[in-house]
C-alpha cells in the first residue's frame, strides 16, 4: 500500500530533508545507492548507444553479428540496473536496436517463394518412375512414346484428384417465395406497464440524494485526532523527535498501519509537522516552529518536496520485529 506525504522545509536545511533522489525509500532503509556504480553504468550505456549509432550503416548493410553483440552487452549492463535513470537509457538503446533490426530485416533475401520449374519437372519424372536423369545426356521429351506420355499424365491425374476439392452439388429449393406480411404485434402502453409495476411493488428504490460529505468529515475528524496525539507528544518531549515508524505502525493491524500513514500525510501536507531522515537514515517526525507556521504559504521561504513510501505486508512485519514495537502510539478511536 502507498501513501503520499508532502512537507514544507527550509531551503538551507535541504541536506537533512528528503531529497528527490531519496524519495523512494528502500524497505530495509539501511543500504545506500552506489552513485559511482550507477554513474559507471550510465557511461557504458551512452558509449554503447554512441557506438551503435556510429556503426549504423555497417550493422544494417553487412551480415555481421554486431547488433547481437550489442544486445548481449546491454543485457549484461541491465543486470546491474536498479534505478529509473539507468533503465531509461536501456529503453533508449532498445528503441535504437529495434529500428536497426527492422531495417536489417527489410534487406533479407525474399526469394523463398521462387518457383524452380526445372526442379519441379525432375521431381514429377521421379514420382511417375521415369528417372531419365541417369541416362547419358538423352532428352526425355524426344525419346518417349505415346504410352509413356499417357501413363505419365494418368499417374499425375490420380495423385492430383486426391488433393482437389470438389464443388458442392446444387440443390433446388422447393417451395413458394410468395411474401407474407408478418402479423403486427400489439403495442404495449408504457404508462400502463409502469403503473402495473408500481401496484405490484416491482419498482426499484429511487435514490433521492447522494451524500458524500460523511466520508470527508470522518477523514477530517481522524486527522484532527491523530494531530492531537502528535502535538501531545511534542509538548511532552519538545526536544525529541518521534520515530515515523514507531508513530504510524500498529503492530496488531496492517490495515490500520496503512490508514495511519494516510492520515499522517495530511498532517505533513498542511504544515503541522515535517518528516526528515536522522543520522541513521531513518525517517522521523519533527514539529514546525509556531512562529514560522504563518509563513507556510510563502513559496520563497519553504520548498515543497514530495515522497512516496511503499509498505508491503512483509515490510510491516520486518519493521515491527526490528523496532520491537509492542503497542501502537495511535490508539483506535472505536
Share of residues in strands: 5-15%
Order of helices and strands: EHHHHHHHHEHHEEHEH
The total of helices stands at 12
Mean of all residue-level pLDDT scores: 75
User: What is the CATH homology-level superfamily of the domain at 2-28 and 214-323?
Assistant: Structural maintenance of chromosome 1. Chain E
The rounded distance between the terminal residues' Cα atoms is 23 Å
What general form does the structure show? flat
The first-level CATH class of the domain at 2-28 and 214-323 is given as: Mainly Alpha
The tally of beta strands, per DSSP, is: 5
Computed CA radius of gyration, to the nearest angstrom: 40 Å
The biggest sheet amounts to:
3 strands, antiparallel
Helical fraction equals 40-55%
So, CATH architecture of the domain at 2-28 and 214-323?
Answer: Orthogonal Bundle
Instruction: Predict the CATH topology of the domain at 2-28 and 214-323.
Output: Arc Repressor Mutant, subunit A
In the sheet with the most strands, the strands line up as: 2-4-3
**Oligomeric assembly:** single chain
Low-confidence stretches: 1-23, 26-31, 293-301
Q: By helix and strand content, what is the structural category?
A: mainly alpha
Keywords: Chromosome, Cytoplasm, DNA damage, DNA recombination, DNA repair, Nucleus, Repressor, Telomere, Transcription, Transcription regulation
Protein name: Non-structural maintenance of chromosomes element 4
Subunit structure: Component of the SMC5-SMC6 complex.
Domain Nse4/EID protein Nse3/MAGE-binding: 90-138
What's a concise summary of this model?
The protein is mostly helical and 334 residues long. The protein has helices spanning 35-54, 56-61, 66-78, 84-106, 117-127, 146-161, 190-200, 213-236, 244-248, 254-269, 290-293, 313-323, and strands spanning 2-10, 242-243, 273-277, 283-287, 302-310. The two termini are 23 Å apart.
